[in-house]
Amino acid sequence: MRAMVTGVSRGIGRAICLQLAKDSLARGEETCIVACGTGKSQDVHNVVAELQAMGVKAQAVLGDLTDAEAPGRMVDEALQFAGGLDALVNNAGFPIVGTLKDVKVRHWDMMFAINVRSTLLLGRSAHAALKASRGSICAIASTAADVVTPGLTGYSTSKAALIMLVKQLAHEWGPDGIRVNAVSPGMTHSRSTENAWDEGNIEFRESKIPLRRLGRPEDVANAVAFVTGPQALYVTGENIHTDGGVRFVTMDYMIPPGQGEKYKQHRR
């Protein structure tokens, strides 16, 4: 398994890297993970160190996905290191809290650049390598794409666009042997979202989730490992929800009185 994963500094991205590596090693494959982040913290390098400690060939590739030139360069670096790609996972995501009336154009453009455009540009750059390996792409979307989510109007819109992009790519690139799928987390408790939770609102929200618990990064990582792995070779154009069934619940109903601002911060 030779995989490139974006947004790996913490939480879901880190869990994806570790799960892909674990599964690949269990299959007896030579394993190479390219971990991508902005480089604004040491976190991405810490993930690389964890992977290397597992016996995995791993390297950090840094870049700002709001820069349209960055995806191509990052894929080139990944290919130079890994010698090819079997899986591309675009986990990088960017939310802005605000209403459609007030959201700044530059913030709107940043959300679409990271949440939608980067998947297209990374995929284009990796197309030849993925065609050669009959590999796959997985984009991390969100249940926010399925339901009206207070305060995350632009984010929800961008994630909905991402899901349609996944379907279009699956249709166009299927004849090249490239599978393209999405995984949509719901409310996920991780390092990157911990500031949005306290004991009171965790209990409230879990009581409204059909499976009665918040998601964990590992829940998302397991779904990604499935759609990029050998057990899903005939699965493409799908969006797998890892949300405990929360998308069936009206999101307004999930917000405790006075907790609106905290709630807005929890999403990917």
Write up what this structure looks like.
- With 268 residues, this protein is of the alpha/beta class.
- Helix content is 44%, strand content 14%.
- It has a single domain (2-264), classed as NAD(P)-binding Rossmann-like Domain (Rossmann fold).
- It has helices at 11-26, 43-53, 70-82, 105-133, 153-173, 199-208, 217-228, 260-264; strands at 2-6, 32-37, 57-62, 87-90, 136-140, 179-185, 239-242.
- It has a seven-stranded parallel sheet with strand order 3-2-1-4-5-6-7, sandwiched between helices.
- Helix 1 (11-26) links the parallel strand 1 (2-6) and strand 2 (32-37).
- Helix 4 (105-133) packs parallel to helix 5 (153-173).
- The longest helix is centred in the middle third of the chain and has 29 residues, at 105-133.
- It starts with a strand and ends with a helix.
Number of domains: 1
Range of helix content: 40-55%
- Average pLDDT reading: 89
What is the highest CATH level, the class? Answer: Alpha Beta
Please indicate the percent range of residues in DSSP E strands (runs of 2 or more): 5-15%
How many beta-strand elements? 7
Largest sheet: 7 strands, parallel
Q: Architecture, CATH level 2?
A: 3-Layer(aba) Sandwich
Q: How is the CATH topology named?
A: Rossmann fold
Compressed to H and E, one letter per element, the order equals EHEHEHEHEHEHHEH
Unreliable residue stretches: none
Coarse structural class: alpha/beta
Radius of gyration, whole Å: 18 Å
CATH superfamily: NAD(P)-binding Rossmann-like Domain
Output the strand order for the largest sheet.
3-2-1-4-5-6-7
